[in-house]
Amino acid sequence: MRRKARTTVRKSARGTALLAVAIALAVSGIAACGGSPAATTADGKTELTWAMWVSGTEDTNAWQKVADEAGAAAGVHITLQGSTFSDHFTKMSTQLAAGDAPCLVAVQSLRTAQLKDGMLPLGDLVKSNNFDLSVFDKSMLDGLSADGNLYALPYDVGPVMMFYNKDMFAAAGVPEPKPGWTTAEFLEAAKKLTTGGKYGIAANPNDLAIESQVLAFNGGRVLTPAGKLDLGNADFASGLQWVSDLTNVQKVSPQFPGGDALFYAANQFYSSAVAMSVDGPWSLLDAKAKARFNVGVTTLPAGPGGGKTYSAGSGWGISKNCATPDKAFAALKEMTSAKILGELGSAGRALPARTAQQQLWIDHANIPGVADTLKAASADAVPIPSNPASEQLGQLFNQYLVKAINGQEPAASVMTDIAAQMPPS
Amino acid sequence: MALMTRSATAAKNNRATPAGQQARMSWWGPGFALPHGAGLLFFTVVPIVATLVISFFNWPLLGTPSWVGTGNFAKILTDPIFRRVVLNTLLFVVLYVPLNLVISLGLAAWLTPRIKGRHIFRVIFFIPAITPVVANVVVWRLLYQPNGLIDATLQTTVGVHAPNFLGDEHWAMLAIVAMSVWQGFGYNLLVFSAALDAVPEQLLDAARIDGAGPWTTFWRIKFPLISPSVFFATMLTLITSFQVFIQPFILTRGGPGDATVSIVQYIYNQGFALHKLGIASAGAWVLFVIILGVTAVQFLGQRRWVHYDA
Fold first, then answer.
1. What pTM was estimated for this model as a whole?
2. CB B244 within 8 A of CB B92
3. Min CA distance, B165 vs chain A (Å)?
4. Domain identity same for A347 and A381
5. Residue pair A310/A212 in contact by the 8 Å Cβ criterion
6. Whole-angstrom distance between the N-terminal and C-terminal Cα of chain B?
7. Residues A177 and A261 in one domain
8. Contacts of residue B79 in chain A, CB cutoff 8 Å?
9. Domain that holds residue A411
């Protein structure tokens, strides 16, 4: 009896040990294999995850709707995976390199070169699907291409513009700006708007915003049209000095506290602490939802030798490690369909990259002069070039331009500090 | 013969029982330890060894790694930016650790059982430690920024502008330290408070009879008795403060310039923004050696002031 009991115990002990080994192996197996295996939902639909930047509830709802509608039309299930814009690219470049990125990945045109090594060139899928690219804005197809390959289908496009608070302009008795206004007119307005603890504009050292402001002021570029870094560019440094002087010489902009530039500038604008903000059509939905005042848009103020603005936009592509690229492309086609881009346009979330649908965004904006502004801004817009080091440059701008803006160091010497940390171009 | 047989059988039986038990133990033991052991192996030992290996390679996130020997360490130790981030981190540690310990020990000493509502105070002081750091940091940004709560209050009451705490390189680190102390002292307060409660009442009575005042009682009786807790708290606070990352990352993104970049942010930037995993791993090992050195010095020094024979 005792012997039997002992054998049973020993047997079950061995069983337990084997079970433990099995569990340990299973755990290590889970740890070892990443990637995007082809998963399906209970009803047999292919499961696709879509990495997208989101800002706030309105934004999340708009993208969730795209995921649901495009998923239903393409016969797949799309799960939205959101992160903030400033974290999206760090996260994506890591995931793409490690081979465990989601199937569908959002790309901003100026960061195409940075992500391309982990992305699938779409040429073959476009050809085999007989997909017509001519309906899209040509500059965005270029923006989302690198080395002659298209990496994403564009959903929005837009020139960087100036958003302004109509109520504050009216209260200060300043006439509303017209497209094509000059930096002299801008400065005059900003000075009148700076009163009673409020300011004309908030500093925004986000790369797209600051590079556009300088380009409009004097044509200075930190990236050549071919996408090469030109950190020592004298025009860019003097343009940057002009933007910085708005804070510490002209005093029409509050001292900049550092931190996330986009977040700060947008919040200062939405809370009526400043009257103007450099932004793009992609923010209009957010602006209308968060601002408790009438929002106006106009072109960036043009200075001598400037006048142009950068256009940027974004699209969605497929990661190289995606197990079901055909399904992913089917989803992409639906996500960028005339119907969905039209809806995003009518909601004000994105100025559609499909030229035929752009009027819907203009109608929704319902801001007198927005069509003229867009026309004027688009006419003067040049696509912002992309460079593999764009993300690093953006981070260093965010970190170092604080010193120039707050007047602790001249812009040219800040650019020298930044150049010392960048790879030789 | 019979005796021999019997004793042989006895010996066999004697051997059989413990051997059987041993076999049972040797299966159960590893069986139970295996899940934990596997976790330790795959999630701790393997990554540690992997970072050591990677630190000797030029290891881009994409592309093929190449052996560079101690090249990454040489590069880091001669990099002026790395020197700057080490100094930044040391400055943070030197300011943060003493402030944290003084405040938490002071408040714990004040929160004696005679204080009414001490439990409520304990909860209030502990709340910052359990709320998410990111949320705390965002709120502190609103306090610190120009026209924020501090600046606006100073303007309406005294009529002067507060400094631009986060945008001025002379203030930024101090602002981060202040926020971190507020966030971090609650944990140490609880540790000290619990240790002080455990000090035997009769010792304090004896001291009082001998004519010791509160100051003498605290430093001569209470402090030696809670010294193991103080040692424990000092060690943990030192180690975590060397790993500071989230507060400067969200408050200033490391700016203005490189005034508030910490060692961990340097590692993060090298690894995830620049994709130089070799440099990032080497940086992590340098940080490990710094922490190991400081901890070793602490252990050597504890003999002079930590009393375990209560």
1. 0.81
2. yes
3. 7
4. no
5. yes
6. 62
7. yes
8. none
9. 160-311+369-420
